[in-house]
Amino acid sequence: MSSTIQQLLHNLHNQTPSRDLIAPVIKKIRYQKMLPYFTILGVLTITLIASIYNISLSAVGGEIYILRSIIQDQSISMVHLVDTFSLLQMSLPWQQVLITIFTAIASIVYFYFFLSFRKSMIMKNIPMKGGEHI
Amino acid sequence: MLEQEKQLIASALCGNDYAFGQLLKNHERRVFTLIIRMVWHKETAEDLAQESFWKAWKNLKQFNTELAFGPWINRIAINTALDWLRKKKKEFLGTEATDIDDLPEEHEPAIEEQVASEEVEAALGKLPSHYRSVITLHYLEGYSYEETAKLMKIPIGTIRTYIHRAKKQMKNFLTSTI
Questions:
Q1: What's the rounded Cα separation, in Å, for the pair B108 and B98?
Q2: What ipTM score was computed for the predicted complex, to two decimals?
Q3: Are B20 and A26 in contact (CB under 8 A)?
Q4: Quick check: A6 and B54 CB within 8 A?
Q5: Do A29 and B57 touch (CB under 8 A)?
């Protein structure tokens, strides 16, 4: 039986990829949709923490004093560490609770969503930016 | 276009990523095959297919819902593969070819034996990337010479030359393996 190259090409079959090509793309789409919420949450957390710290200006002054003494003495003793810890204790209880809650939320968001997303994207080698011409 | 596909596109346009995933499933193998025939490297083809899917999602609002989804996603895949080939190889789409405008397609000699698909695939793989891309676009995807020339951004005469030479090389390879 005789065939032309054209006929032979038409008889070729579709090929199958060795991995799931769609799931990582869908994961990236979901992450992209949630990105504005992550950003808002992050900005809120940072703003709140910053505002809480601004309230206790004496704590900031104390930190600077300790840092200066560490630099001057060229040594870090247990006394310095205890002093730093005691400065954190100067915050009001409600401030400490808020700092703890927001830090916990930020940590969960970061470790669970961001790291798992990055891992999958790096593993599948998908470019992180889109919007190229089609 | 199938009614089910229309519904999936409508849902995807509303932001339903699950519907978009279902839509892609219908075209996954087709897109992958198209790209692998152009780049001839499995892992690269998989990466480029994923990149094409991502671009499709990003540009879904530009899609005309009156048209079929398949040719649209194929076009994205072709552009993605061609961009990759251009970046990868400076010599890709080189200008070494002399344009041949008067080659009659009908005079192609036949191969006098039954040839297996694997051998045809292997012969395709032996071609330089620009020949392979032209063959894929013209014969496998059904683009005309004009459309292929536009896609690859080279003159139509060069496309004819590439096809002529590619078929000659494939024929030589196939007759030597029979």
A1: 19
A2: 0.78
A3: yes
A4: no
A5: yes
